[in-house]
Protein backbone atom coordinates (compact mmCIF):
# COMPACT_ATOMS: atom_id res chain seq x y z
CA UNK A 1 0.00 0.00 0.00
CA UNK A 2 1.38 3.39 -0.91
CA UNK A 3 0.67 6.54 1.00
CA UNK A 4 -1.64 8.87 -0.92
CA UNK A 5 -1.84 11.89 1.38
CA UNK A 6 0.20 13.84 3.87
CA UNK A 7 1.30 12.24 7.14
CA UNK A 8 0.10 13.42 10.55
CA UNK A 9 3.45 15.15 11.09
CA UNK A 10 3.20 16.95 7.75
CA UNK A 11 -0.32 18.16 8.57
CA UNK A 12 0.75 19.37 12.00
CA UNK A 13 4.01 21.03 11.03
CA UNK A 14 4.68 23.99 13.33
CA UNK A 15 4.82 27.42 11.83
CA UNK A 16 7.31 29.85 13.30
CA UNK A 17 4.94 32.73 14.08
CA UNK A 18 6.90 35.61 12.62
CA UNK A 19 8.87 36.35 9.52
CA UNK A 20 10.24 39.20 11.56
CA UNK A 21 12.18 39.31 14.81
CA UNK A 22 12.87 42.07 17.27
CA UNK A 23 16.60 42.84 17.24
CA UNK A 24 18.45 44.62 20.03
CA UNK A 25 21.73 46.09 18.78
CA UNK A 26 24.94 46.72 20.72
CA UNK A 27 24.09 50.44 20.88
CA UNK A 28 20.81 49.57 22.65
CA UNK A 29 18.57 50.41 19.70
CA UNK A 30 15.71 48.00 18.95
CA UNK A 31 14.38 47.34 15.45
CA UNK A 32 12.21 44.84 13.64
CA UNK A 33 14.19 42.80 11.11
CA UNK A 34 13.30 40.08 8.62
CA UNK A 35 14.02 36.56 9.91
CA UNK A 36 14.78 33.63 7.61
CA UNK A 37 14.26 30.28 9.40
CA UNK A 38 15.97 27.03 8.44
CA UNK A 39 13.84 24.09 7.32
CA UNK A 40 12.35 22.02 10.15
CA UNK A 41 12.87 18.24 10.02
CA UNK A 42 9.50 16.45 10.58
CA UNK A 43 11.12 14.14 13.17
CA UNK A 44 11.64 17.20 15.38
CA UNK A 45 7.93 17.89 15.76
CA UNK A 46 6.64 14.31 15.66
CA UNK A 47 6.92 13.94 19.45
CA UNK A 48 6.14 16.03 22.53
CA UNK A 49 9.06 18.11 23.78
CA UNK A 50 11.17 21.05 22.71
CA UNK A 51 13.66 21.74 19.97
CA UNK A 52 15.39 24.77 18.49
CA UNK A 53 15.12 26.20 15.02
CA UNK A 54 18.06 28.08 13.57
CA UNK A 55 17.71 31.12 11.38
CA UNK A 56 19.31 34.33 10.23
CA UNK A 57 18.44 37.94 11.02
CA UNK A 58 20.43 40.64 9.25
CA UNK A 59 23.26 38.17 8.60
CA UNK A 60 23.43 37.05 12.24
CA UNK A 61 22.61 33.49 13.33
CA UNK A 62 19.61 33.27 15.70
CA UNK A 63 17.78 30.48 17.50
CA UNK A 64 14.06 30.08 18.25
CA UNK A 65 12.80 27.57 20.85
CA UNK A 66 9.80 25.49 19.71
CA UNK A 67 7.54 23.65 22.18
CA UNK A 68 5.56 20.65 20.90
CA UNK A 69 2.47 19.83 22.98
CA UNK A 70 -0.16 17.12 22.70
Write structural notes for this entry.
The chain is mostly beta strands and 70 residues long. It has 1 helix and 4 strands, in the order H-E-E-E-E. The protein has one helix spanning 8-11; strands spanning 20-24, 30-37, 49-57, 60-68. The chain has a 4-stranded antiparallel β-sheet, with no helix packed on it. A hairpin with a 5-residue loop joins strand 1 (20-24) and strand 2. It is elongated. The protein starts with 7 loop residues before the first helix and ends with a strand. The mean pLDDT is 77.
What's the total helix number?
1
Sheet of most strands:
4 strands, antiparallel
How do the helices and strands follow one another from N- to C-terminus?
HEEEE
Number of strands: 4
Strand proportion, as a percent range, falls in 35-45%
The assigned structural class equals mainly beta
- The share of residues in helices is under 10%
- Rough shape? elongated
Mean pLDDT: 77
The termini sit apart by: 28 Å
Q: How do the strands of the widest beta sheet line up side by side? A: 1-2-3-4
Radius of gyration: 16 Å
The stretches of 5 or more residues where confidence is low (pLDDT under 50) are: none
Q: Multimeric state of these chains? A: single chain
